[in-house]
Amino acid sequence: MSINMDEIKVLIDEQTLQRRIQEMADQIKKDYEGKTITFICILKGSVFFTVDLAKKIDGDVRLEFIRVSSYGGDTCSSGEIKMKLDLKDSIRGKDVIVIEDIIDTGRTLKYLLEYLTLKRPNSLKLCTLLNKKERRVCDVDVDYVGFEIPDEFVVGYGLDYDEKYRNLPYIGYFENV
Ligand code: IMP
Ligand code: MG
Questions:
Q1: Which of 46, 104, 162 to mutate to test ligand 1, by most ligand atoms within 8 A of the CB atom?
Q2: Which residues fall inside 5 Å of ion ligand 2, going by CB?
Q3: Residue whose CA is closest, atom 16 of ligand 1?
């Protein structure tokens, strides 16, 4: 499949994205008043969202990074998930929010939440910019959702197709795919 930039349609424009991220930041700030928050950014897709969200919270926000890769499959099994880059510092006793770009089948998050729970944080919540509910295979509780989106393959604002399009400032989808 060869894809051409011209075929990308805007699903969520930059202004709408930033406005919603501000609302999410305000909500998180309220929920964590006076606490130190540790964001765990899931590389690579969540980088743009993590940075913008963190900048919009005027409070103590720390950053950690983790990278996993997942392979398809029809069952809710974490067997296909591989840890590519583990946390470098302890999250024990910390108030952690996992920051994800998109939840699709839910496999990645189910695995990660189980993994992170074993590290004994004080609290563990999940925040995703996009949620493709229709595609869910594994049940995951999401605490903060930016946008519910239909079952389209989306790119931009961190999300890639074969490593391309991450740097688009908006969320787009491919027409005719
Ligand atoms: P999961 O199926 O919920 O485990 O999602 C796994 C990963 O697939 C996400 O973190 C994204 O990196 C990627 N992904 C899922 N849907 C899309 C999409 O529409 N565009 C780009 N990447 C996606
Ligand atoms: Mg991802």
A1: 104
A2: 45
A3: 104
Give all strands (DSSP E) within the chain, no chain letters: 8-12, 37-43, 61-70, 81-85, 95-103, 123-131, 144-148, 154-155, 171-174
Over the stretch 37-58, which tens digit does the pLDDT of each residue have? 999 999 999 999 999 999 999 9
Query: What atom in ligand 1 is closest to the CA of residue 107?
Result: 4
Indicate if ligand 1 lies below 6 Å from the C-beta of 106: yes
99: Cβ below 6 Å to ligand 1? no
pLDDT for the residue numbered 44:
96
Among residues 90, 103, 93, 133, the alpha carbon closest in space to that of 42 is found at 103
**The predicted structure's pLDDT at residue 104:** 93
